[in-house]
Amino acid sequence: KILILDFGSQYTQLIARRVREAHVYCELHPFDMPLDEIRAFAPRGIILSGGPKAVYDEGAPAVAEELFELGVPVLGICYGMQLMSRHFGGEVVPAGKREYGHADLLAQGRPGPLFDGFFAEGRSPVWMSHGDHVERIPHGFEVVAGTDNAPVCAIQNVERGLYGVQFHPEVNHTPRGETLLNVFVRRICGCQGRWTPGQIIEDAVARIRAQVGAERVILGLSGGVDSSVAAALIHRAIGDQLTCVFVDNGLLRLNEGDQVMATFAENKGVQVIRVDAEERFLSALAGVADPELKRKVIGNLFVEIFEEEAGKVSDAQWLAQGTIYPDVIESAGGKTGKAHNIKSHHNVGGLPEHMKLKLLEPLRELFKDEVRAIGEELGLPHAMVWRHPFPGPGLGVRILGAVNKEYADILRRADAIYMEELYSSGHYHKISQAFAVFLPVKSVGVMGDGRTYEYVIALRAVETRDFMTAGWYPMPYADLARISNRIINEVKGVNRVVYDISSKPPATIEWE
Ligand code: XMP
Fold first, then answer.
1. CB–CB of 92/130 below 8 Å?
2. ipTM, 2 decimals?
3. What's the rounded Cα separation, in Å, for the pair 397 and 6?
4. Is ligand 1 within 6 A of the CB of residue 469?
5. Which residues of the chain have pLDDT under 70?
6. Secondary structure of 343-388 in the HEC alphabet?
């Protein structure tokens, strides 16, 4: 396994993902991880990330001196390379010319094992983002490459297994970067690439069994990717010791509840308690129009109902959750301070502490792509594993203003048609998230010989990597025409369909 020490670069998570894509397990920790913890972790290699600071600044983040004496290979990226350079007597200075974006890396000297094959005709395109560079080469190192602006952009001490690169191999804009990281973890560090879906499942199953023993586990199943994969995995490990609670809040999509039951209870024989709580949710929401208040009402009622049901499973000792690695990193890495709360995204989280249950989080170390890969390996339906994200409050935040059953039924039918069309036209998997929104305003239309006065459905489809910023999807007119026609013809109560062409920011992805 590989240890990644984080100096605060916006790309650190990408390093971890690239390493995992090489089927090597890695963990990301803050740069000041104590040395004895590093020794206990026993990495086969260490990667030092980039970071926003300058190494020569007072109090700049640093690593323990002994880090380079552990006898394992170290790769320093950007700030990490500068840190390593200074440690070995090199000199880092502010660059006369900063370098951001594409650069042409020019080979010098022998490439050595890490850069073997990295250059084509002495060059390799890379992505740079730095204001400082290494001016004097550290002792014992040789220069592998530079650019016109910065003569020292890749260094190595092959004998000691120490490497530094000024560019960012972890981003897609460095075409051969993925290979470079792969070579580092596999060839230089000697990791074998055992981190495959089958192996992840096998390890997790063994761990769950060891942790839980003969005790009972309960899990709040929502039908979303994370809780579904957690359920399938835990069920594989402990079978009937797992009880799932699936709360149908009446704000799910068309037939969603039945699909969840079919997948888990019927096909896999998982014990699922289905709670039909539509009426309770709708009456709690009656007249509540404010988006944040709706979120609170839905979140609180969910916890209340989950507690009631879990209380009936009297011997439960464990609460399982589908927490994944990015959730862990985000809540631990709060050093930079989070942006203020635009929308409260409480999911199935925030479950009752006073229930005194032990927490089981089998996906805690996995990235979303890994969760999906093991979901497929566990035999979950493709459509469930590759589904767009669906917010915890469900249709509750896609019906603008006050929610009622009539609106929810109309929205469910419109959304189902939209999804069906996106699947059949092949757009679904090119879109990051798509859904229909119910607008409680009436507009005039004409159908046959009669005047209509009915509701409006808005269609949203966005492309995004991180859901922090998003662009609207350029849906072809012909597809929009077909979807609009079908919704207006097939969904009673709707006579107008509009397409949302706002990006985030300034709009958000959901309408509430
Ligand atoms: P926004 O609308 O903030 O959405 O651009 C970004 C992502 O978050 C999802 N979202 C939520 N997820 N509970 C959730 O679990 C919520 O209350 C919530 N609000 C938004 C949204 O679907 C998108 O993927």
1. no
2. 0.99
3. 36
4. no
5. 332-355
6. CCCCCCCCCCHHHCCEEECCCCCCCHHHHHHHHHHCCCCHHHHCCC
Ligand 1 atom having least distance to the Cα of 508: 5
CA distance 399 to 430: 25
- In residues, how long is the chain? 512
User: pLDDT (tens digit, 9 = 90+) per residue, 369-421?
Assistant: 999 999 999 999 999 999 999 999 999 999 999 999 999 999 999 999 999 99
CB 396 within 8 A of CB 251: yes
Q: Answer yes or no: are the C-beta atoms of 273 and 305 closer than 8 Å.
A: no
Domains of the chain from N-terminus onward: 2-188 (3.40.50.880), 197-385 (3.40.50.620), 404-499 (3.30.300.10)
pLDDT digits (tens, 9 = 90+) for 40-87: 999 999 999 999 999 999 889 999 889 999 999 999 999 999 999 999
Per-residue model confidence (pLDDT) at position 465 = 83
Half-sphere exposure of 373 (CA within 13 A, CB side): 15
- Contact at 8 Å (CB) between 250 and 282? yes
Specify whether 78 is catalytic: yes
448: tokens are 């046959």
Mutation test residue for ligand 1: of 227, 344, 345, the one with most atoms within 8 Å of CB: 345
Candidate of 509, 511, 512 to mutate for ligand 1, largest count of ligand atoms within 8 Å of Cβ: 509
CB 428 within 8 A of CB 422: yes
Residue 170 appears among annotated catalytic residues? yes
In the prediction, which pLDDT does 234 show? 98
C-alpha distances in angstroms, 478 versus 309, 332, 421, 456, 474?
Answer: 48, 46, 12, 20, 12
The b-or-e profile of 302-330 (16+ CB within 10 A means b, else e) is bbebbeebbeeeeebbbbbbbbbbebbbe
**Which of 130, 133, 168, 235 is labelled catalytic?**
168
Q: Is 168 considered catalytic here?
A: yes
User: Considering only CA atoms, which of 443, 431, 437 is closest in space to residue 391?
Assistant: 437
Q: Is the CB of 224 under 6 A from ligand 1?
A: no
Q: Is residue 124 within 8 Å of 36, Cβ to Cβ?
A: no
pLDDT (tens digit, 9 = 90+) per residue, 129-175?
Answer: 888 999 999 999 999 999 988 889 999 999 999 999 999 999 989 99
Is 227 annotated to bind ligand?
yes
Cα(510) to centroid(ligand 1), Å:
6
Is 224 flagged in the annotation as binding? yes
The strand pairing partners of 105, in sequence order, are 124
Beta strand ranges found along 222-333 (DSSP E):
242-248, 271-276, 316-320
pTM above 0.95, yes or no: no
Query: Which atom of ligand 1 lies nearest, measured to the CA of 389?
Result: 24
